[in-house]
Automatic annotation (TrEMBL), chain A:
<keyword id="KW-1003">Cell membrane</keyword>
<keyword id="KW-0472">Membrane</keyword>
<feature type="transmembrane region" description="Helical">
    <location>
        <begin position="267"/>
        <end position="287"/>
    </location>
</feature>
<keyword id="KW-1133">Transmembrane helix</keyword>
<protein>
    <submittedName>
        <fullName>ABC transporter permease</fullName>
    </submittedName>
</protein>
<feature type="transmembrane region" description="Helical">
    <location>
        <begin position="93"/>
        <end position="115"/>
    </location>
</feature>
<keyword id="KW-0812">Transmembrane</keyword>
<dbReference type="GO" id="GO:0022857">
    <property type="term" value="F:transmembrane transporter activity"/>
</dbReference>
<feature type="transmembrane region" description="Helical">
    <location>
        <begin position="64"/>
        <end position="86"/>
    </location>
</feature>
<feature type="transmembrane region" description="Helical">
    <location>
        <begin position="135"/>
        <end position="161"/>
    </location>
</feature>
<dbReference type="InterPro" id="IPR001851">
    <property type="entry name" value="ABC_transp_permease"/>
</dbReference>
<dbReference type="GO" id="GO:0005886">
    <property type="term" value="C:plasma membrane"/>
</dbReference>
<dbReference type="Pfam" id="PF02653">
    <property type="entry name" value="BPD_transp_2"/>
</dbReference>
C-alpha cells in the first residue's frame, strides 16, 4: 500500500488528466455566460470537436491537427448557436438543445467510420524542464501537454476579463445589454465573440478527450460532460479562477470511480460511474445553500429565464 | 450668484421647442437660454414637460418643432451618443451603472481615455477616477458599486458624465434620491462644477433645490414656460403660484361629477395606524389616517414621496415594517389572517397597464381575476352575458370579451381595472394616480366611478397629484412628503391650492 501522500499525489495527477477536457469546456461556457449567453449546445460543440478531432488525427496521424480540427468544429457549432440566439433571437435554452441534438446525430453518423481507429496522443511532459523538479517532477512527466495548456488558458481568460477593455465590455454585456449600448459598446459583438471563443474551447476539450485522453472514438463519448460544464459554471460562480478547482472536483470523483475497484472496494460499476455526476449535483446544491443564489450571476442572464 | 457675462453666446438656447405625443403637447413653444457657468433650475409639477424638454436636447425625443442652439449653432441630436460627443451629459434618476462591477470598472466603461490594456488593478484607468476623487474622495474605487449608497452612486454617475468633458450637465430630479446631508453635498458640487464654467440644468420640483444652488429659475406648467427669473428675485410664493397655476380650473370642460354628500353619522371604515413600509423617503413612514364610510380622502403629494409604498402596504402587496391597517374594525395587515379579508378592498394601482391587468389574457379573464382569487366556484363566475354587460356598463372599448387586455388603449385599460375593482360593492377603494395619462373623457369616467363607489358606502383613499381635482372631489386632503403625512385639512372653500401645493413641495404652510 502506498503511503497517503503518494496516493494523494497520484490521484491528483490522474484527476488533472481526467479534468483537462472538462476545464476547457467549462472555461468556454463561463466566458459565454459572462456576456449573457447560455449555451447548452456546448455539449454538442464538445461532441463535434471530439469526433472531428479524432477523425483528423486518425487521417493525418498528427494529434495537433486533431486539436485544430476539434476547435474549428466547436467554433462551427457555436456559430450556429450564435446565429440562432443573436441573429434570429431564438430562446437560448431551446437553441442550445437544438445544437446539442444536431451534434449528437451528426457525430453518431459520421463517427461510425472512426470506431476502432487509432490515433497518436499529444506528447507528454516527459523530458521538459518540469520533470527536473524535485519529488513531483517524475509524476509531472506523465501528464499530457494538454493539461498545462488548459491551465494556461484559464489564466489567460482571467487576465482577459479583468485586465483588458474588451474583457470589460464582455462583463458589461453580461450585466446589461442596455447599459452597454448606452456607453457606446456593442453587446451583440461581445456576445458573438465570447460564444465563438467558448465554442472553440469546447471543441478543443472534445478533441483532447477523444485524441489524447481515451484515444478512441465511441458514440456519445462526452457522456454529458458539456452539460456538467454548464452546472459547474454555476458552482464556479461564473468566475474563471474557480473553474480549475471545481473541475478538479469532478476529475477527482472520476478518478475515484476508476480506481476504487482496484483497491478492493466492491461497488457496482454503474454506481461508480454515476459518482462524478452525483458529486457535481451535491456541489451544486451545497453551493446554492452556502451562497446567496444568483448573487454572482451576470444580471442579464436572468433575462434568459423570463 | 451671477451667471456668465451677458454678452457671451449662451451655451444652450431653446427656440420654440415643441414636442407632441399624439394630441398631447408635452412641450409647447419653449424658449430659454442657459449660459456657461450658470445653474438653471427647471421647475414644474410632474408632467409639466421638464424631462421631455431635456430629452429633446439629449437626442432621446427629437423635437417636432423649434430648434436647439449649442453655442449659437443649430444642433439636432438623433442619439444620446451624439449629444454626449457634443459635450452634453445627463444624469438620469435611474443610473446607467452596473451594481455588480467595481466603481473603477463602471467609470472605465464610459471613459473615452480607457486604453485596451487596463493594467494591474486598473492602473491605466486612473484618469477615469480623477473627477470622482474630487467629488467624493471617500469612495473606494475597488468597491462594488452595489455596496454604495444611492447618493454615492449618483456621484459616480456624475463623475462619469464629467469624464466625457461635458460642458452642459443635466440633472434629472437629483435630490429626490438623496438624504438631506447628501443633498447639501450635491449642492456644493453643483456650484463647484458651475464655477468651472459648466452649464448646469437641474430638473426639480423642490424649492429647497432652487434656494440652495440655482442662479436662475425657469418654471414650466403643462408644457409651456410659465415664467423665469433670477432665483434671488423670485419669492417662494411666486414660484409656487407659477408651478401650480394662477387659478383653479373653473372653466375646465371635463365636467367633474358632484362631490357625494357625507353620511350623516360618519363611521370609520378604513384605518391606518402608524403604517411604515421602511425608512427611505420613498417608503410610507408612520402614516396614520382614518377614512370614513362614504368618504373620499385625497392624498396629495409629488410622485415618489411614498405614495406607491403606502398604497401597496394598504393593499397587502408590500409587507409593513410597522403599524397596522384595519378594515371595518378588524386588522387586515397581518399575514396570518385570512387573506380574503383584503379582497374587500378595491385596488386601482398606479400604472394599470403594468400592475392592473394580465396583458396576454382576455378581457373576460381579466375581469374574473378577483373571482379566481376569491375561489368562487364555476357557478359563481360571471356568465358571458354578464361579462358583456359589465364591459358595456364600464364603456370598455372595444367590448370584445376575447380580446387580449394588452391591446386596449390606456384609458380602456383603466376602465377595465375599475370595472373589476368596483363592479361589486367594496368596503374600501384604493386608487393610485388613477387618471395619470388619461384624456378628458376617461378622466371624467374614472371620477364618476370613484364618486359612485363612495356614494355606495366605500371608504375611498385616493392618491393624486391633481390638486384641482382633489380640491373639487375629496372630502379631506392629506399631504404626503418623504413618506410622512405633513398636513391634513377638511376641504372647505377657504382651502387654496397654494396652501396645499406649498406643503407638497416643502414650502411654508
Amino acid at each position: 500500500m502506498m503511503d497517503l501522500a503518494t496516493l494523494f499525489f497520484v490521484w491528483g495527477l490522474a484527476s488533472l488528466t481526467n479534468a483537462t477536457p472538462l476545464i476547457l469546456v467549462t472555461l468556454g461556457e463561463t466566458l459565454g455566460q459572462r456576456t449573457g449567453v447560455i449555451n447548452l449546445g456546448c455539449e454538442g460543440a464538445m461532441l463535434g470537436g471530439a469526433c472531428a478531432g479524432f477523425g483528423a488525427a486518425m487521417a493525418t496521424g498528427n494529434p495537433w491537427i486533431g486539436m485544430a480540427a476539434g476547435a474549428a468544429t466547436g467554433l462551427l457549432f457555436a456559430a450556429l448557436h450564435a446565429a440562432l440566439v443573436l441573429g434570429a433571437r431564438a430562446n437560448q435554452l431551446a437553441a442550445g438543445i437544438a445544437v446539442w441534438t444536431l451534434a449528437l446525430g451528426l457525430t453518431s453518423y459520421i463517427g461510425r467510420a472512426f470506431v476502432g481507429g487509432k490515433v497518436e496522443a499529444l506528447p507528454s511532459l516527459a523530458g521538459t524542464w518540469l520533470t527536473d523538479l524535485p519529488i513531483i517532477g517524475k509524476g509531472l512527466g506523465q501528464l499530457s501537454v494538454a493539461t498545462p495548456i488548459a491551465v494556461l488558458l484559464v489564466l489567460a481568460a482571467v487576465w482577459w476579463l479583468e485586465r483588458t477593455r474588451t474583457g470589460l465590455s464582455w462583463r458589461v454585456a453580461g450585466e446589461s445589454a442596455l447599459i452597454a449600448t448606452e456607453n457606446g459598446m456593442s453587446p451583440t459583438l461581445s456576445r458573438l465573440s465570447a460564444v465563438l471563443v467558448g465554442g472553440c474551447l469546447a471543441g478543443l476539450g472534445g478533441a483532447v478527450l477523444s485524441v489524447d485522453y481515451t484515444q478512441t472514438w465511441a458514440n456519445e463519448i462526452t457522456k454529458g460532460r458539456g452539460l456538467v460544464a454548464v452546472g459547474l459554471v454555476i458552482v464556479a460562480r461564473w468566475n474563471p479562477r474557480l473553474v480549475l478547482p471545481v473541475c478538479l472536483l469532478f476529475g477527482f470523483a472520476e478518478t475515484a470511480a476508476l480506481r476504487l475497484p482496484a483497491m478492493g472496494v466492491d461497488l457496482s460499476s454503474y454506481v461508480l460511474s454515476a459518482l462524478p455526476y452525483a458529486v457535481v449535483l451535491v456541489a451544486l446544491v451545497a453551493n446554492q445553500i452556502t451562497f446567496r443564489p444568483g448573487a454572482a450571476m451576470p444580471a442579464d442572464l436572468k433575462r434568459v429565464f423570463q | 450668484m451671477t451667471g456668465a457675462p451677458a454678452e457671451a453666446v449662451p451655451m444652450v438656447s431653446f427656440r420654440g421647442v415643441t414636442k407632441r405625443f399624439g394630441t398631447l403637447a408635452a412641450c409647447d413653444d419653449v424658449s430659454f437660454d442657459v449660459a456657461g457657468g450658470e445653474v438653471v433650475a427647471l421647475l414644474g409639477e410632474n408632467g409639466a414637460g421638464k424631462s421631455t424638454l431635456m430629452k429633446t436636447l439629449y437626442g432621446i425625443h427629437p423635437p417636432d418643432g423649434g430648434e436647439v442652439l449649442i453655442h449659437g449653432r443649430p444642433a439636432a441630436f438623433a442619439r444620446p451618443a451624439d449629444a454626449m460627443a457634443a459635450g452634453i451629459g445627463m444624469v438620469f434618476q435611474t443610473f446607467s451603472l452596473l451594481p455588480a462591477l467595481s466603481v473603477r470598472d463602471n467609470l472605465a466603461m464610459a471613459w473615452p481615455g480607457t486604453p485596451w490594456y487596463l493594467g494591474k488593478r486598473g492602473r491605466n484607468v486612473r484618469g477615469a477616477l480623477a473627477h470622482l476623487s474630487q467629488l467624493a474622495p471617500g469612495i473606494n474605487p475597488d468597491a462594488r458599486l452595489g455596496t454604495l449608497s444611492t447618493g454615492e452612486q449618483q456621484l459616480v454617475e456624475l463623475a462619469k458624465v464629467l469624464n466625457l468633458d461635458a460642458r452642459l450637465v443635466i440633472l434629472d430630479e437629483p435630490t429626490s434620491v438623496l438624504t438631506p446631508a447628501e443633498a447639501e453635498r450635491l449642492y456644493g458640487l453643483i456650484r463647484a462644477i458651475a464655477a468651472d464654467g459648466v452649464a448646469v440644468v437641474m430638473i426639480t420640483h423642490k424649492l429647497a433645490d432652487v434656494e440652495a444652488c440655482a442662479d436662475r429659475v425657469v418654471v414650466m406648467r403643462r408644457g409651456r414656460v410659465e415664467g423665469e427669473g433670477s432665483a434671488a428675485a423670485l419669492s417662494r410664493a411666486e414660484i409656487v403660484t407659477l408651478m401650480m397655476g394662477r387659478t383653479a380650473r373653473g372653466d375646465d370642460p371635463r365636467g367633474l361629477p358632484e362631490k357625494p354628500p357625507l353620511p350623516a353619522r360618519p363611521r370609520p371604515q378604513l384605518l391606518l395606524r402608524r403604517v411604515s413600509t421602511g425608512d427611505q423617503t420613498s417608503d410610507a413612514r408612520d402614516v396614520t389616517l382614518t377614512v370614513h364610510r362614504g368618504e373620499i380622502l385625497g392624498i396629495a403629494g409629488v410622485t415618489g414621496n411614498g405614495q406607491t409604498a403606502l398604497a401597496e402596504g394598504v393593499a397587502g402587496i408590500r409587507d409593513l415594517t410597522d403599524g397596522e391597517v384595519l378594515l371595518d374594525g378588524s386588522v387586515i395587515s397581518r399575514r396570518r389572517l385570512d387573506p380574503r379579508r383584503k379582497l374587500h378592498i378595491g385596488y386601482v394601482p398606479e400604472n394599470p397597464r403594468e400592475n392592473g391587468i394580465v396583458a396576454g389574457l382576455s378581457l373576460e379573464t381579466n375581469l374574473a381575476l378577483r373571482s379566481i382569487a376569491e375561489r368562487k366556484g364555476a357557478s359563481r363566475r360571471m356568465t358571458s352575458s354578464e361579462v358583456a354587460q359589465r364591459l358595456a356598463e364600464y364603456d370598455v372599448r372595444p367590448p370584445e370579451p376575447a380580446r387580449a387586455a394588452g391591446t386596449l388603449s390606456g384609458g380602456n385599460v383603466q376602465k377595465l381595472v375599475i370595472a373589476r375593482e368596483t363592479g361589486e360593492p367594496r368596503e374600501a377603494l384604493l386608487m393610485v394616480f388613477p387618471t395619470m395619462g388619461l384624456d378628458i373623457t376617461a378622466t371624467a369616467f374614472v371620477y364618476d366611478r370613484m364618486v359612485a363607489a363612495a356614494a355606495a358606502g366605500a371608504a375611498v383613499l385616493w392618491i393624486s397629484e391633481e390638486l384641482d381635482d382633489l380640491l373639487a372631489l375629496a372630502h379631506r386632503i392629506a399631504v404626503i412628503r418623504e413618506g410622512r403625512i405633513m398636513a391634513e385639512w377638511p376641504v372647505t372653500p377657504g382651502l387654496t391650492r397654494t396652501e396645499v401645493g406649498a406643503s407638497m413641495t416643502g414650502g411654508p404652510t
